[in-house]
Specification:
Distance between the termini: 48 Å
Number of strands: 8
Order of helices and strands: HHHHHHHHEEHHEHEEEHHEEHHHH
Largest sheet: 4 strands, antiparallel
Oligomer: single chain
Strand content: 5-15%
Shape: globular
Number of helices: 17
Number of domains: 2
Structural class: alpha+beta
Length: about 450
């Protein structure tokens, strides 16, 4: 066997092993289409190798050419020839009023003071919001995926979170524990990880990402929010792949509720720890005691990039994360925003938009919203489907190519996507080929 034969066989075996690993991980993920296609490719490669050296002796030139094509493809996939496009954030001149967010607006009951005051100032939203309020509420009878027992259990988790909203702040110890910011930052990150977070980052808090007025929660509605903390400690919690893959059915909402509860518990314990060391700290938790907008702050903390569907994309878990945060005046060392290909990938992918049952995710280009270039969702349409489904949907999270589990094969793909425009194009095509462009809602 000469050099051309050795190189061809070695290359074929490496590629076949890759697809074998892909098949194994796809079976574990219950992605049968991808698994069987991978097995088919692996068998085809094996058949070519056997037939090529048993029944047919290909010329050396053909073997060298085939081997060269494979390795050129591999180099193009992994060579860092194209820097990923970062998110563009310009000058932000105004803060968001939480009273105008969709989650706040849906809570305004007809005839209440909030209802009369808000729609007197914002009559353009009254008709669409009234139509939404006539639909079943989340986890209530009438939703497509409503279940008497399971929906009741999920609501109990959200009530548990609501009970924690009065514990987000507290007295600060008079005795300050002084350490240099680098040491303190390392200790805080280690503590957050021990408390159960999957990823953690530090951001210098952009005051434009602080809500201007209270719109939900136990604090007085319409109260001006004055948050003078300099830093935010932000963390992610992975949402279980098996639960996400069942979206938009109830398991996605069960998982959301549990991770929001975990985030609340971690945030409250972290804030209490910081206050005990003599520094002001406030937890920002769901249902609702947020005073900051978590996705952009998490981006500033280096935890990921904002995507076409509006979710933060984590480098490790993709869209399958929930966020938690604590703001503080404890001196820390901030992390930097990261760019690993999400903006370029989302610009060419469209899979979330194509599968969105509410058509809330845009197919077009980014727009500039308050100084930030982003894809702007139709939040009213999104919430309308939530109410019809009776869950928080999550179908876009389910189909996003970044949401695959961090297995060896998926991490190899992510490594290429991070650096190479060629890899991004090939990976989008590959995701459509192996997993399909559209998901069937009854296909789990």
């Amino acid at each position: 066997m000469n050099l051309s034969h050795v190189s061809a066989v070695a290359t074929g075996v490496i590629v076949a092993l890759f697809f074998l690993l892909f098949a194994v991980s796809s079976f574990r993920e219950r992605k049968l289409r991808a698994a069987w296609l991978s097995i088919g490719i692996m068998v085809a490669i094996a058949a070519l190798l056997v037939s090529g050296f048993v029944w047919w002796q290909p010329p050396d030139g053909l073997l060298y050419a085939a081997t060269a094509i494979v390795w050129i493809f591999t180099l193009l996939y992994f060579l860092p020839l194209n820097k990923p496009t970062p998110m563009r954030v310009g000058a932000i001149t105004d803060r968001v009023d939480e009273r105008g967010t969709m989650f706040a607006r849906e809570e305004y009951r007809f005839g209440s003071d909030k209802y009369e005051k808000y729609y007197a100032e914002h009559p353009q939203y009254k008709e669409v919001d009234d139509r939404l309020r006539r639909l079943p509420e989340l986890l209530e009878p009438g939703g497509r995926y409503y279940h008497p027992e399971r929906s009741k259990q999920i609501k109990a988790v959200f009530r548990a979170i609501q009970a924690l909203t009065t514990q987000v702040d507290g007295e600060v110890s008079a005795a300050k524990t002084g350490k240099d910011p680098s040491t303190t930052t390392a200790e805080i990150k280690e503590l957050v990880a021990r408390l159960g977070a999957d990823e953690v980052g530090i951001a210098r808090l952009n005051k434009m990402f602080v809500y201007s007025h209270v719109g939900r929660g136990p604090e007085p509605w319409g109260k001006s929010i004055e948050l003078d903390h300099e830093f935010a400690v932000v963390f992610t919690l992975e949402m279980g792949y098996d639960q996400v893959r069942q979206a938009p059915d109830l398991p996605i909402t069960e998982e959301s509720a549990l991770q929001y509860l975990r985030a609340a518990t971690i945030s409250i314990r972290l804030a209490r720890y910081i206050r005990n060391h003599g520094y002001s700290a406030r937890a920002h938790i769901s249902d609702s005691n947020y005073q900051i907008m978590l996705p952009p702050v998490a981006h500033d903390a280096g935890l990921g990039e904002l995507s076409r569907m509006g979710y933060l994309i984590s480098r490790k878990y993709g869209a399958r994360v929930r966020l938690g945060a604590v703001t503080t005046d404890l001196p820390l060392v901030p992390d930097r925003p990261v760019a690993f290909g999400v903006q370029d990938f989302c610009a060419a992918c469209f899979k979330c938009a194509e599968n969105c049952p509410s058509t809330a995710i845009p197919h077009g280009d980014k727009t500039t919203v308050r100084g930030v270039e982003k894809w702007q969702l139709d939040v009213e349409q999104c919430l309308r489907y939530w109410r019809l489904a009776g869950t928080d949907c999550g179908l876009c999270m389910r189909v996003c190519p970044y949401s695959h589990p961090p297995t060896f094969v998926h991490n190899v793909v992510r490594a290429g996507v991070k650096h190479s425009a060629f890899a991004r194009r090939v990976s989008i095509w590959g995701d459509h080929f192996f997993y399909g462009r559209k998901v069937r809602l009854n296909a789990q």
